[in-house]
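To: structure subgroup
Subject: Chain for Friday's discussion

All,

I'm putting the inputs and outputs inline so they're searchable in the archive.
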Amino acid sequence: MAPTIIPGEILIVDKSTVNFKSVLILIHHGKMMARKVRRLEEGGYELVPDNPVFPIIKTEKIIVIGQVVATGKRA
């Protein structure tokens, strides 16, 4: 499976809404990342990358910046 967001692409982020079914821009341990986020029944979250090269991260706390609404290539 190819990643949805390709390195070098520009991301358009809507900071006014957050849909956990979309790719979110978030801060985890001081690092900004784009991930799908799953809320866990027992509490906390799973940060799920689209690219299988990166691991799924389980965490108790995230800071959500916004949701990715579009991507585009640099001109």
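Points worth raising on Friday:
The CA atoms of residues 44 and 65 lie 17 Å apart.
The first strand starts at residue 10 and ends at 14.

D.
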